[in-house]
Write a structure and sequence with these properties.
The protein is α/β, with parallel strands linked by helices. The strands form 8 sheets. It has a 6-stranded mixed sheet. Helix 4 crosses helix 5 (180-196) and helix 15 (498-507) runs parallel beside helix 16 (542-552). The N and C termini lie far apart (55 Å). Bound molecules: 1-deoxynojirimycin. The site of 1-deoxynojirimycin has 7 residues, from loops. It catalyses: Hydrolysis of terminal, non-reducing beta-D-glucosyl residues with release of beta-D-glucose. Its EC number is 3.2.1.21. It is an enzyme of class 3 (hydrolase). One of its GO terms (molecular function) is beta-glucosidase activity. Belongs to the glycosyl hydrolase 3 family.
Length: 869
Amino acid sequence: MVRAWLAPFLHVAFAQAQYSTTPTGPNGTAPGDLNNAQSPPYYPSPWIDSSTAGWTDAVAKAQAFVRQLTLLEKVNITTGVGWEGEACVGNTGSIPRLGFPGFCTQDSPLGVRFADYVSAFPAGGTVAASWDRGEFYRRGYQMGVEQRDKGSDVLLGPVVGPLGRNPKGGRNWEGFSPDPVLSGIAVAETVKGIQDAGVIACTKHFILNEQEHFRSPGDFGDFGFVDAVSSNVDDKTLHELYLWPFADAVRAGTGSIMCSYNKANNSQVCQNSHLQNYILKGELGFQGFIMSDWDAQHSGVASTLAGLDMTMPGDSDFDSGFSFWGPNLTLSIINGTVPEWRLDDAATRIMAAYYLVGRDRHAVPVNFNSWTRDTYGYQHAFAQTGYGLINQHVDVRADHYKAIRVASAKSTVLLKNNGALPLKGNEKNTAVFGQDAGDSQYGPNGCADRGCDNGTLAMGWGSGTSDFPYLVTPLDAIKNAVAGNGGIVQSVTDNYAWAQIVSLAKQASTAIVFVNADSGEGFITVDGNAGDRNNLTIWQGGETLVQNVSAYCNNTIVVIHSVGPVLIDSFSNSENVTAILWAGLPGQESGNAIADVLYGRVNPGGKLPFTFGTNASEYGPDLVYEPTNGHGSPQDNFEEGVFIDYRAFDQKNITPVYEFGFGLSYTTFSYSNLTVTKVAAGAYTPNTGLTQPAPVLGNSSTDASQYQWPANLTYVNKYIYPYLNSTDLEEASRDPEYGVDHTYPEGATDGSAQPKIAAGGGPGGNPQLWDVLFTVTATVTNNGTVAGDEVPQLYVSLGGPTDPVVALRNFERLSIGPGKTATFYADVTRRDVSNWDTVSQNWVITNYTKTVHVGSSSRKLPLSAKLSF
Ligand code: NOJ
C-alpha cells in the first residue's frame, strides 16, 4: 500500500488537472462520448442546511459544539491520526480540552473487523437474496449494536458501490445487487438499522468503484506505475443506475459517505467537485460528512474545496508521517487559501452525524484494538508506544446468531428442484462432497482477512470481513440432521480424490455436492485472482466434481457458495442433478441455514439478486485488467449505459440460465387480479431560490505563532497532529511549490448565498420524486400444501429507446399459508416512472407509453397494465 510518489509537496498544491473548464456543461458527457471524459467543476462546496428535515436538532447541536472549538481542534476532528496510530481501523484526533475522544471508524459491512467476540453476518450480496426489508433492517441494527458495544463511532458500511456492473468485480458481494432499486431498499433499511443502534453508517464507496484492478494510483505494480482507473460514465447512467442507491442512503439519513479510490471522468473522486459538491451535497442534499477511503485523498486544498470532510487514515501514505491535512489544513486556513467556513462546515457535518444518531448518549470507550488480539499491547501500534490494556474482549454478540441463521436461510435461493427436496433425514445413504462442505484446515480465521479459499466459503476476502466466532459447516449440520434419524452420512472433502469420490458416489442414494467461487479486495491475491475474479468458473475443480458425482448418482443436489454468478450450464440441465441451491456467503451459521432448507425446516423463498448466465461476455464489457493508457489512468468507458445484469440480457435477448428475481419454493404460487389506481399528486416543481450564506462559526487568528507545537507534547512517531513546526509558513508546509500562484476554481471560496439545485430540495433529492402516482395491488395464491414465502416483484417499462425492457421498482416478501391468498400492495412513485434529463438537469416523465408488470421474477411477469397519466 506504500505509494512513494506522493511527495509531500503536493500537500497544499491545488491539483489543477483534477477539474476541467472544458465546456461539457453540468451534464457531463453524453453516451458514446466517453473517451477521456471530463468532470466539470462545481464550487463552492455546499454547506450544511440547518432546515433539512430530520437534521435540524443535530445541526443546531453540532454548530454549538463547533463554535467553541479552536482552529486546531476543528482540524483535529477532520484528520485521521495515521495508519495504526490508534485502536480502530481509522481514528481522528481528539479534543482533550473537552474530554472528547475523537472518532473511531471501523470496518466492516458484515460485522466488526479485527475484533474478537463478534458475529459474522451474511454478506450484503447474500442477504439481498432474502428480498426482505425486515431482514435488512434487523441485520443493520444488530451490526450497529456490536460496533456500538465495542466502542466504535462509525461503521464503514453498507456498500452500494461497487453496484456490480460486471460480476467479476472483486467486492460486489460486499454490496447488495446490481439492481439499483433492490440495492437502494437494502441500503436504506441497513442505514436505518445501524443508526437506530446509535452508530454512524458510512455508506461506501462513492462512486463508480466497480473494479479492484488499478483502483488507486500505482496499486498494480506488475505494470510499473499506472494511475488510478477512470470510470467514465454519462450523466443519465450516473443518475438512473449508480447514484440511485446512494440517493436512498442519503434519504435514509446516512451520517457519512466514503469517497472512493478511483477516478470518475478522469478526476479523482475524493477531489471531484462535480460529484461531491454538485451531486452529493447539492442535488442529493447530503448533510453528513464525506470521508475518504484509506489514502484515497490525493491533494490538500483541492480536496478541501471539492467537499471532502474527513481524511482517513490521515496520512498521505500509510505511516509516512505526512498528511494532506493536519498541519497543512491549519496552514491553508491561516494563509487564507481555504475559507474558515469550509473547515467549520466539515467539522459541523461530522458533529451533526454524531448527534443525529445519538452518539452523545450511546458512546462507550473503545474496548478493542484492531492490530492485535493480545490483552496487553501498544495503544499506538505503529509507533509501539503506550503499553497497557488494549483488548477487553467484550462479547457483543448477544443472541444475534438466531437472526443470522434465519436471515441466511431466508436468503438461500432454490434454483432447481425435480422433487429431490426437501430431504427427510431418513434417506438411505447420504454422501456429501466438496471442500466447500467442511472445515478449513487452518480454522475459519486462519487466513488474514479471509484471504484464501479453504473449507466452506462463508464470506469473501479483504476489509469487508470479520472474524468468525465459529463457522458451522454444512457437513456438521447435515450429520446432525441425518444422525438423529438413524441414517448414514459419509463425505469426501478433497475435490481431487477421484477414487474415493467415485466409490462414494456409486453407493449414495442422495449426493450433496458443495462448490464455491471467491473474490475480494485487491490488496490480496488468491489463486491468481487479484481481488477481481479472472473468470466466472467454479473454483477448485467444482464443476468437474459435480459432473463426476452426478455421473454415478442420479440424485445429485448441488449447493453453491459464491460471491455472485458462476457458470453452471454444463450441469444445470442434467437429469441426474436433481436440485440446485445458491446459498451465497451466509456467515457463521452457514451449515445450519443450508440444512434448514435442505431438510424442509425452512421453505426457501429467496430470489436471485443477479443473473446466472452461460458466458461472462453476456454481462457486458469486461473489467479492465491491463493498462489502456500507458502510465496514465486506464480508461474504463461505461458504454453499456444502464444495461447491466438482467437489463443487458433483456436488451440483447439472451436467455439466462436463471434470471434476476428467480427462486423456487417447496410450494407454488400464482398471480391474479392486478389493479392500478392513479393517485392525485401535484405537478413536479423544480427546487428554486437561494441557500443561506455559509454559517460563520469561527474567526480564528491568522497568527502562525498560535499554532506551533506545544512545548510539553510527547511526539508519537508518525502520528498526525494539527500543529505547525515553524512560524514561517513556507517552511511549515514542507512544500517546494509553496506560494506558487495557482489558479483556483471560480467561486471555490465564495460563502455567499448560492442558487438551489432544481433536482434537489431534500435528502436524496427533490422530495416530490417520492410522491406516489399510482398504487398497485395483485393477488398471490399459494397453490400447494405447505406454507411458503413469495416475493412478488413490480417492474416498469418506461417505453423509451434507451430504457431497459423492464426495471425493478418494488417488491414485498409475503408469507402465505397453503391454499391461502395474500395481497401485494406497492406504490409507484414519480421517481419510479421518471428518466434523468441531462438538459434540464432534472427528472422528467417522458411521453413514451409506460407499463407496470407484476410477477415472480424479471422474466415471469404474468400481470401487466398500461399506466395512464
Ligand atoms: C479500504 C477499503 O476500500 C474500505 O472499504 C475500508 O473501509 C478501508 N480500507 C478501511 O479498512
